[in-house]
């Protein structure tokens, strides 16, 4: 038995059959070139009889892509096989993959017509003949012929062995036994291969192949179980795309065989794993199917650590929580993602990496503010951290006014309304303001003016995003004027309305501080004047 696993990529055929995943010919070509860089052994490029576009895609891939064997699918029908052979003509190393259904359910549904026989036994005999004829015809075009018994996973194993025997005798070099409906469980699927191989006693050049669908989420597990039963080709797709729930994910199969090589007799797998993530992104872009963040191997979170204990662990020793190296699959190494579950260790080691040393006496305050921000934002980026450390802690204890509560309502058919509750810390009284405005910010500012009885003018308002992402922090800068003197307030928040209110109130607090300072100067000066008899007035 060979010690090498053939990786048969069917992203462009079964993968493209995923509802909504169709790709243009140019996209298919680009992906086929990438699959060649990834070093897959076989590319199933399409099903030429099914449409002119499929035919052309196979033809161009066969003509232009070098390295892997280029394969085309054909039902066990003469016209399909001729179309596949024609499309593959420009290729150097080509394979025809012909298939016919073998399970009773499929026979009943697809071969119901009496011309295939009246009884199940007669229909089964017809299928044996059609399989044999298809393989023989395919062999007249190429020495590399794959035969698939569709729905093998639900086929009577005795009949399955008969079909396989006929296909091998007709010249098939690869025998694929698909779990077409994703119905099998691993030990059952492996047992099917063992039993067929035991009954058929195939010659050594014949390779058995697994092709699994993911209807029960078992496609990868079933493929690996098949390998343990003697299979040496796995049919799979990038990101596991394919009919219904998809096929076995190539990246998962390959990394399982590599990371857990000892469980599979250290079989050789020729994939250049460093290209896995890039290939996954490319397929995702072409199909419009996003890669879930938690997708094994290629997902954005596959090598990210957020929980404090995990971050602490991987910073000490990567293998505490990583079973493979991120860079081996083309991902960024050591992704410490900062969020609400992160601990001090993760935060300060990231800050240190950014070259920011936080003095011991500020650490607690910085961590507390980090957690407050993490409650507002799903993920904290480096830019958030830089700002967090640069900013002065919390609010100004000298501030006269403090925003206690704010409600804003706006809609397509109503004027924006705002209500604010502001505490005057000097008198310990709560002031409420309510207003409508041209926009929500205008309504908030009018409500604040009402609550604090302000007599200033708004000179400018500026909003900009200071960090990335949909939940970015917005920074608002407000300038107000009071009798020719200007005061600036700046505030940041993930909620831009909140940042707008805070910035405005900060400017007002500065104005109040200025007034209080002037009053005390006047008061002191008046006292001095009094003691000198008012001489210098
Ligand atoms: O799932 C399946 O049975 C197939 C065959 C055509 C191999 O895709
Ligand atoms: Zn399939």
From TrEMBL:
Biological process according to GO: L-leucine biosynthetic process
Cofactor: Mn(2+)
Spans through the membrane: none
InterPro entries in the record: 2-IPM_HCS-like (IPR050073), 2-isopropylmalate_synth_dimer (IPR013709), AIPM/Hcit_synth_CS (IPR002034), Aldolase_TIM (IPR013785), LeuA/HCS_post-cat (IPR054691), LeuA_allosteric_dom_sf (IPR036230), LeuA_bact_synth (IPR005671), PYR_CT (IPR000891)
Keyword Transferase: yes
Molecular function (Gene Ontology), one example: manganese ion binding
EC number: 2.3.3.13
Catalytic activity: 3-methyl-2-oxobutanoate + acetyl-CoA + H2O = (2S)-2-isopropylmalate + CoA + H(+)
Class of this enzyme: transferase
Task of the protein: Catalyzes the condensation of the acetyl group of acetyl-CoA with 3-methyl-2-oxobutanoate (2-ketoisovalerate) to form 3-carboxy-3-hydroxy-4-methylpentanoate (2-isopropylmalate).
PANTHER family: 2-ISOPROPYLMALATE SYNTHASE 1, CHLOROPLASTIC-RELATED, HOMOCITRATE SYNTHASE-RELATED
Similarity comment: family membership: Belongs to the alpha-IPM synthase/homocitrate synthase family. LeuA type 1 subfamily.
Protein name: 2-isopropylmalate synthase
